[in-house]
């Protein structure tokens, strides 16, 4: 069994273990296909590639981690996206979640507060050919506050 298949099996096992908590016996086939399409090892630094397909988080630098594959799959499933949807992700990290979502929706906008992670994710996603993901550097909390003030002032 290869690493990808082992990861997919681990996700299915986690779903079976948590089905009473998540209210479903399986994740959407579209989500599992999206997970299968994304080369997870490309989103993990070379020193930690041996962890890329383990069902656990892995360091990505700047004190951050790439999320556990089961959690990425579950979050993607719970969004219940449609192919024409647009998604805003707060916290780009390595770009892995955005890459998975890009296989499910029309457009993904992703905001990362740490400039180094934002730039690395932007370059990585471009290199891997993801054309429907826009990564920006910024503080979602601060930006949301500015937008709210603008909306309130114009009301």
Which descriptors apply to this entry?
single chain, 155 residues, alpha/beta, two-stranded antiparallel sheet, 48% helix
Describe the structure.
There is one protein chain. The chain is an alpha/beta fold. The chain is built from six helices and five strands; from the N terminus they run H-H-E-E-H-E-H-E-H-E-H. Helix 1 (3-22) crosses helix 3. The chain is globular and about 40 Å long.
Q: Report the principal-axis shape.
A: globular
Query: How much beta, percentage-wise?
Result: 5-15%
Number of helices: 6
**Secondary-structure content class:** alpha/beta
Strand order of the largest sheet: 3-4-5
| Percent of residues in helices | 40-55%
Give the integer mean of the pLDDT values.
93
For the sheet with most strands, the description reads: 3 strands, parallel
What is the number of strand segments?
5
Q: Sketch the topology as an H/E string, one letter per element.
A: HHEEHEHEHEH
Q: What Rg, in angstroms, do the CA atoms define? A: 16 Å
Uncertain stretches: none
Please report the distance between the alpha carbons of the first and last residues: 59 Å
